[in-house]
Design brief:
19% helix, two-stranded antiparallel ribbon, alpha+beta, 60s Ribosomal Protein L30, Chain: A
Length: 152
Amino acid sequence: MSAPRTIQDRPGAILSPGVASRASEWRESVYVDFRGPLVSTNAAYKKTRTGQFYMNPEGKAFKTALAFAARGAMQGRPPFAGPVSVMVDFWFRTAANDVDGPLKLVLDSLEGQVFTNDRQVVHVSAGKHKADEPRQVGLSLTVKAVPNGEDE
């Protein structure tokens, strides 16, 4: 795996592509290390007086930055076409955050960049950690192509 590199116009995102070490079990994988504020799905969507939902600017910015980092990590490869497994670790400012809060936005951000549609996700593993310093807030994720639609 090559060393992580920083995106110049998105200084909070660090990315590193990779190929799975167990090549006989996994065809390909991609790794993204993203540092920046995390946005939960509930916080990203607002409701108008007429009952319509919309994504606020904070939610849009998070999805855009993560999609940008994911696209860079793919290094020009097309999105995975078959089933995938997603493993994500979140680093929050406090331990009180829900691990599933930002998960839907993360999967939506990867759509079209790492996989074609989030319906391809057959396995999700998520963990949460308390960041020791504010600069550690963010996420690390690995998406692996699953051979024959099987789980790990």
